[in-house]
């Protein structure tokens, strides 16, 4: 049975009004990404980071899924068990579009995580309370449920399983700076890249650059919402093989 592995990034939600990380020179809503996305920044100023995620969470409430979110949710429904969607995004727009099995590699904005028992709990769009208490173990040591640079990302284990099980790889709206989509795509005979930009890929030697799209079978150089029809055509053709 054919299976499709999808890795999506911030570009998937850009047209829904959620800022990407690197299109605005490393600023995420005017904060230096490394300040609010790293354990260093977290240790230096927990309140600043908590305020940042509270603002992101509240900002998410009125954001709507776009045509690509809806297409991906419909694909999951049409081909149950044949789509493995791993997203780097912490927003819930795929879920708002009806997707049920999205794997959030970097966590989720609408949940908090207990630093004692490490379990998460849903809070929706509200700010974390000063005296937020873990409903599972009662601890008051609670934080945002977003994976930061410098800490482990347990969900990455799903990447390796997906590579083994899938025969079509699709990367949508990601610069490849964190998840190395160039390393991943070389495991596949069939692949699709969706990005309006030609991102450069610097090999480990640093001096040799190639466009990421040169590694993909199909490159749809377009914004996510303009790439839906062409992408679906390739997928239907592949799954119908
Ligand atoms: N449609 C598709 N792609 C788009 C669009 C769009 N409308 N607009 C921008 N893009 C592309 C950009 O060209 C860029 O290649 O989306 C990509 C966004 O790249 P990043 O901002 O680096 O986001 P991402 O790849 O998801 O970052 C990965 O880095 O900061 C960490 O944990 C954070 O999950 C994040 C990870």
Structural key phrases:
2 domains; 13 strands; globular; binds adenosine-5-diphosphoribose; SIR2/SIRT2 'Small Domain'; six-stranded parallel beta sheet
Task: Please mark out the parts with pLDDT under 50 across 5 or more consecutive residues, or reply none.
Answer: none
Mean pLDDT level: 94
Bound molecules: adenosine-5-diphosphoribose
Architecture per CATH nomenclature, i.e. the level-2 architecture of the largest domain: 3-Layer(aba) Sandwich
Distance between the termini: 10 Å
Continuous helix count: 9
What does this structure look like?
This protein has 241 residues and is α/β, with parallel strands linked by helices. It has two domains: 4-18 and 64-106 and 152-239, Rossmann fold; 19-62 and 111-146, SIR2/SIRT2 'Small Domain' (2-Layer Sandwich). It is 31% helix and 21% strand. It has nine helices and 13 strands. The protein has helices spanning 11-14, 33-36, 39-44, 46-60, 67-78, 93-96, 157-165, 181-185, 224-239; strands at residues 4-8, 27-28, 31-32, 83-87, 103-104, 107-114, 120-122, 142-146, 168-172, 190-194, 200-202, 209-211, 218-220. The strands form four sheets. A six-stranded parallel sheet has the order 5-4-1-9-10-13, with helices on both faces. The mean pLDDT is 94. The structure holds adenosine-5-diphosphoribose.
How does the SSE layout of this entry go?
Layout: E1 4-8, H1 11-14, E2 27-28, E3 31-32, H2 33-36, H3 39-44, H4 46-60, H5 67-78, E4 83-87, H6 93-96, E5 103-104, E6 107-114, E7 120-122, E8 142-146, H7 157-165, E9 168-172, H8 181-185, E10 190-194, E11 200-202, E12 209-211, E13 218-220, H9 224-239
Parallel strand pairs: 1-4, 1-9, 4-5, 9-10, 10-13
Antiparallel strand pairs: 2-3, 6-7, 6-8, 11-12
Bound molecules: adenosine-5-diphosphoribose.
Adenosine-5-diphosphoribose binds next to helix 1.
């Amino acid at each position: 049975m054919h299976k499709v592995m999808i890795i999506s990034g911030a570009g998937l939600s850009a047209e829904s009004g959620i800022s990407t990380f690197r299109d605005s020179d490393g600023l995420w809503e005017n904060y230096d990404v490394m300040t609010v996305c790293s354990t260093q920044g977290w240790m230096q100023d927990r309140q600043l980071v908590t305020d940042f995620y509270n603002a992101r969470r509240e900002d998410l409430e009125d954001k709507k899924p776009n045509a690509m979110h809806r297409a991906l949710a419909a694909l999951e429904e049409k081909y149950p068990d044949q789509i493995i969607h791993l997203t780097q995004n912490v927003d819930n727009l795929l879920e708002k579009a009806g997707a049920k099995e999205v794997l959030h590699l970097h966590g989720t904005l609408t949940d908090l995580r207990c630093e004692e028992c490490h379990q998460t709990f849903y809070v929706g769009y509200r700010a974390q309370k000063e005296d937020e208490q873990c409903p599972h173990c009662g601890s008051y040591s609670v934080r945002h449920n977003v994976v930061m640079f410098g800490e482990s990302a347990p969900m990455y284990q799903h990447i390796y399983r997906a590579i083994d099980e899938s025969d079509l790889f699709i990367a949508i709206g990601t610069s490849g700076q964190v998840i190395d989509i160039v390393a991943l795509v070389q495991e596949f005979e069939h692949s699709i890249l969706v990005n309006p930009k030609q991102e450069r890929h610097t090999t480990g030697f640093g001096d040799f650059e190639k466009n990421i799209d040169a590694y993909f079978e199909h490159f749809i150089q377009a914004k996510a919402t303009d790439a839906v029809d062409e992408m679906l055509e390739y997928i239907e053709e592949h799954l119908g093989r």
